[in-house]
UniProtKB/TrEMBL annotation:
SUPFAM superfamilies linked: MFS general substrate transporter (SSF103473)
An example Gene Ontology molecular-function term: transmembrane transporter activity
PANTHER family the UniProt entry points to: INTEGRAL MEMBRANE EFFLUX PROTEIN-RELATED (PTHR23513), MAJOR FACILITATOR SUPERFAMILY ASSOCIATED DOMAIN-CONTAINING PROTEIN (PTHR23513:SF6)
Gene Ontology annotations for the cellular component aspect, listed alphabetically: plasma membrane
Pfam family name, one: MFS_1
Protein's recorded name: H+ Antiporter protein
UniProt source species: Paracoccus sediminis
Domain Major facilitator superfamily (MFS) profile: 9-393
Amino acid sequence: MLAILANRTYRHLFAAQVIALLGTGLMTVALGLLAYDLAGANAGAVLGTALAIKMIAYVGVAPVAQAFTDRLPRRSLLVGLDLVRGAVALCLPFVTEIWQIYLLIFGLQAASAAFTPTFQATIPDILPDENDYTRALSLSRLAYDLESLVSPMLAAALLSVIGFHSLFAGTVVGFLASAALVLSVRLPVPRAGPWRGIWDRTTRGMRLYLATPRLRGLLAINLAVAAAGSMVIVNTVVLVKTSFGLAEPQVALALAAFGAGSMVAALALPRVLDKVPDRPVMIAGAGLLVVGTAAGIALGSYGTLLALWLALGFGYSIAQTPSGRLLRRSAHPEDRPAIFAAQFALSHACWLICYPLAGYLGATIGMKGAFAAMAGIGLIGLGLAARVWPAGDPTDIGHDHAGLPPDHPHLAAFGANGGHRHAVVIDDLHHHWPGARRH
């Protein structure tokens, strides 16, 4: 897996991702302490609102930002967005009012909503070989999981010698280092598509995404992932401290078990995906999430919780990590930023639904009811994925183009007599998936 780090451009971008993640992790710890400093016992409500603002920014900003930035040089765009994020983080230590937290968090996450899909869409251009790209996806998953383990420990060590306001300086340094690493490499410039109006550019990623069967299946899997993941992220602290009467170290250990399961899956996935197609792997991961969430109804001890969280982390990574392969396969290079932005927005829309639902149900009908309800949502996602994502996921599909003139370059390349076959991607010549509607 580490062999792909021999590629200098990818190595620098991966280092930029890791450093920015560590900085963001420090900010998460510092933000919780800042909220408590300003709001006291209401800090949870402040953080919950900040989380909702984050998800709203992700869902609403990503497609619009991509539409306005799709013709900007990628390197300049990524560096500029890192500098914006660093400038916002620099303001956080000087916050004196809760509304200022909300405003700055929206600005920071809006910049991230533009940065992340652009960053993700760049990697397939750097690593065109699918096996290399698969390993890059697993490394990225490992980076996220390691950040969730390392950042709290690093924050705890720093807090023993500095005040929490100084942790925000680590966030600023992280974003500046990320910008420097991106600036140190030359990024490929994808072929620009035809000029389009702003509404067309804003909605293009969503239209391409929702017209592609495998990506509709991915959206359903995103729902199953969010249903299970929200139970872990929102309710771990309640289960550990209220249901089992334990303390903060046991909360951290439970979350570490979830991360460990995800890391094990990320390490194993490249070898699995060399032999097994994406669809059965991802559906199996979603199925494990549904079964694991349902098993939470019978949760009876802390030890069982650790084992269950380990299994859920494993399923979480299996269901989610290969998604970049589907996106890469489902768009031409010039459309990848749009389709990655659509995935970013739609997947976070699933989290925006499931986060508050998991918390509300746990507080009103109890954890057993919450586990049952979220397992039901996951089962809906799993069933939809199996239904809308065709088995075998065919790519070379026979079809015709009744409206094209016989001398059109596309027909000249692939043949026009009674239709032709090639790997189908939704684009200006293929508005609908063959078999769904003739074009």
